[in-house]
Amino acid sequence: MTTETLLIISAVLPIITVLVAVYLMLRYFSTQNEKQFDFLKANLDLTKLKLENERKKDREKVLIPLRLQAYERMVLFLERINPPNLLIREMQPDFNVGQFQGSILSAIRDEYEHNMSQQLYLSEKAWELVKSAKEKVVQVVNTSALEFKPEDDAVKLANKVLSSGFEGGNDPIEQAMNALKEEIRKNY
């Protein structure tokens, strides 16, 4: 070997050694950075999950009382439109059939409109049963009123509505109440 070759090797060898050392250090730091990045990403995902869980709990703290209140209001609505309760509440001594029918239908409509927003918190099935119960009460009142002259005494209409009732275990008010109670038992 010549001196020139030895000089070149002696100059290049330290450079190659430094380059290999730098490469190994960069590779080591890159691996460490990847591990830190993966750890931070996992930690961020865990934090997001915790926040989402807390938000859900906070939402449930507000939503559950509102839903229970909606069920209570729907039970009260059904009780208020139940013919025996409704007729007693709406009966006036000087009413005739036409006036009494109008008063009953107005009371049902007012109660329904007052509670319509509660459907947000009920299942679709429960809300449909509540609406159906209301419609059937209206139907019984209207069908019963057709049997009398508008100027007849209101007591006749009251007696007819009470005697018509909902025969054969097909009481829509009771069905709706049972559905509401079942949902409460199942969900709370």
Bulk shape = rod-shaped
Oligomer: single chain
Give the strand tally: 0
User: Which residues form runs of ≥5 with pLDDT under 50?
Assistant: none
The radius of gyration computed from the alpha-carbon positions, rounded to a whole number of angstroms, is 39 Å
Helix content: over 70%
Mean pLDDT: 92
Give the helix tally.
6
End-to-end distance: 92 Å
Structural class: mainly alpha
**Helix-strand pattern, N to C?**
HHHHHH
Tell me the strand percentage band. Answer: under 5%
Main sheet? none
Helices, strands, pairings?
Blueprint (H helix, E strand, L loop, with lengths): L2 H79 L1 H8 L6 H19 L8 H22 L8 H11 L7 H16 L1
Description of the structure:
This protein has six helices and no strands. The chain is mainly alpha-helical and 188 residues long. It has a domain at 63-187. Helix 1 packs antiparallel against helix 3 (97-115), helix 3 (97-115) packs across helix 5 and helix 4 (124-145) packs across helix 5. The protein starts with a helix and ends with a helix.
Précis, in short:
The protein is built from six helices and no strands.
List keywords for this structure.
0% strand, 188 residues
